[in-house]
UniProtKB/TrEMBL annotation:
Name used for this protein in its record: Ketol-acid reductoisomerase (NADP(+))
Binding site for Mg(2+) 1: 191, 195
Stretches assigned to the KARI C-terminal knotted domain: 183-328
Protein origin, superkingdom: Bacteria
Residues the entry annotates as binding NADP(+): 25-28, 51, 53, 134
Organism: Fusibacter bizertensis
Pathway, per record: Amino-acid biosynthesis; L-valine biosynthesis; L-valine from pyruvate: step 2/4; Amino-acid biosynthesis; L-isoleucine biosynthesis; L-isoleucine from 2-oxobutanoate: step 2/4
Role summary: Involved in the biosynthesis of branched-chain amino acids (BCAA). Catalyzes an alkyl-migration followed by a ketol-acid reduction of (S)-2-acetolactate (S2AL) to yield (R)-2,3-dihydroxy-isovalerate. In the isomerase reaction, S2AL is rearranged via a Mg-dependent methyl migration to produce 3-hydroxy-3-methyl-2-ketobutyrate (HMKB). In the reductase reaction, this 2-ketoacid undergoes a metal-dependent reduction by NADPH to yield (R)-2,3-dihydroxy-isovalerate.
Enzyme Commission code: 1.1.1.86
Family affiliation: Belongs to the ketol-acid reductoisomerase family.
GO molecular function terms listed in the Swiss-Prot or TrEMBL record: ketol-acid reductoisomerase activity
Reaction it catalyzes: (2R)-2,3-dihydroxy-3-methylbutanoate + NADP(+) = (2S)-2-acetolactate + NADPH + H(+); (2R,3R)-2,3-dihydroxy-3-methylpentanoate + NADP(+) = (S)-2-ethyl-2-hydroxy-3-oxobutanoate + NADPH + H(+)
Length: 336
């Protein structure tokens, strides 16, 4: 069993008198910067001239500087830019300005684990990775709760990197829910696997396959949408609250019997074998290489896929059905 750490195990005092530069003000950036500030930590947000996020961060009451300036003054530098931009921003703006004893912090291990960023040996390098989207990291903090997180130490130059990581985890509220120690390798590989095989890739293809099967058999698109996508939320809420057992307790016995009979025919031996292959492509760096090269080439495959997906019949039906659900968040652009 992994050892869990909670608020009582973390010393927020370690961050007193320190300046934290949060680079980026997107999904994670806004949550970390605001939560830390409200926990009494001195924070500056680092962006670039012309950044859309600059005004947002300022109107949220935060100090904003260019990344170069923010780094030059910081004792901790948290890298919350998109993973694919981190290596070049690190080279041009972070490394030349990084104080000799400043800690370099990540919310995901990709760039360190796959050696896209190689920090000097004099600096602490650690990770605090919330296990949830940034908007939840912010909302739960405001409600007195938190999103659990993983932490890991890659370089311990100060001899205190672990304690700093745990203090940071408390500052963003994660220690209220529990933090687990890991390594950059474990976090990176499990995170990539989870999003590819289960959370994003697995779920979207499962939903589409279910929808397409029903529609091609002549059922109404709206019913197929409700059944295969909309209702997923109810199921996921039950899973989140009480695991597989709570979901199975709550659904009808007919649904539970169908679950036992059919689940393994959908996620079958072939699927499991493919999952192992996906994992080994993550472990041996093949996925990382493809994604790094894809970005260097200007994302031709990514952009084509994104466009193709907007043409799926579920998109139109979904838009129409959701427009009648006034309680849903703004549907334009899904902005913060
Ligand atoms: P986002 O894409 O949401 O954040 C982008 C932010 O970076 C924006 O504020 C953007 O500004 C800014 N930015 C872009 N380029 C630069 C630059 N050159 N210099 C300074 N700022 C820049 O990122 P995420 O929050 O999704 O991801 C951040 C990190 O957190 C990643 O390592 C990710 O793996 C990790 N993570 C993310 C999770 C999530 O919930 N999304 C969950 C757990 C970890 P502008 O828009 O103005 O260009
Ligand atoms: Mg993840
Ligand atoms: Mg991820």
């Amino acid at each position: 069993m992994a050892k869990m750490y909670y608020e009582k195990d973390c010393k927020l005092e370690l961050l007193k008198g320190k300046k934290v530069a949060v680079l980026g003000f997107g999904s994670q950036g806004h949550a970390h910067a605001l939560n830390l500030k409200e926990s009494g930590v001195s924070v500056v947000v680092g962006l670039y001239e012309g950044s859309k996020s600059w005004k947002k961060a300022e109107s949220a009451g935060l100090e904003v500087q260019t990344a170069e300036k923010a780094v030059a003054d910081a004792d901790l530098v948290m890298m919350l830019l998109p993973d694919e931009k981190q290596a070049s921003v690190y080279k041009s703006k972070v490394e030349p300005n990084l104080k000799k004893d400043a800690a370099l912090v990540f919310a995901h291990g990709f760039n360190i684990h796959f050696s896209q960023i190689v920090p000097p040996a004099s600096n602490d390098v650690f990770m605090v990775a919330p296990k949830g989207p940034g908007h939840l990291v912010r909302r739960l903090y405001q409600e007195g709760m938190g999103v659990p997180a993983l932490f890991a130490v890659h370089q311990d130059a100060s001899g205190k990197a672990r304690e700093f990581a745990m203090a940071y985890a408390l500052g963003i509220g994660a220690a209220r829910a529990g933090v687990i120690e890991t390594t950059f390798k474990e976090e990176t590989e499990t995170d990539l696997f989870g999003e590819q095989a289960v959370l994003c890739g697995g779920v979207t293809e499962l939903v589409k396959a279910g929808f397409e099967t029903l529609v091609s058999a002549g059922y109404q698109e709206e019913i197929a949408y409700f059944e295969c996508l909309h209702e997923l939320k109810l199921i996921v809420d039950l899973l989140y609250e009480g695991g597989l057992e709570r979901m199975r307790y709550s659904v009808s016995d007919t649904a539970e019997y169908g679950d036992y009979q059919v689940g393994k025919r959908i996620v079958n031996e072939e699927t499991r074998a493919e999952m192992k292959k996906v994992l080994s492509e993550i472990q041996n760096g093949e996925f990382a290489k493809a994604w790094i090269l894809e970005n260097m080439a200007g994302r031709p495959v990514f952009n084509a896929k994104r466009r193709q997906e907007t043409e799926h019949p579920m998109v139109g039906v979904g838009k129409k059905l959701r427009s009648m659900m006034s309680w849903l968040p703004n549907q334009e652009g899904f902005d913060a």
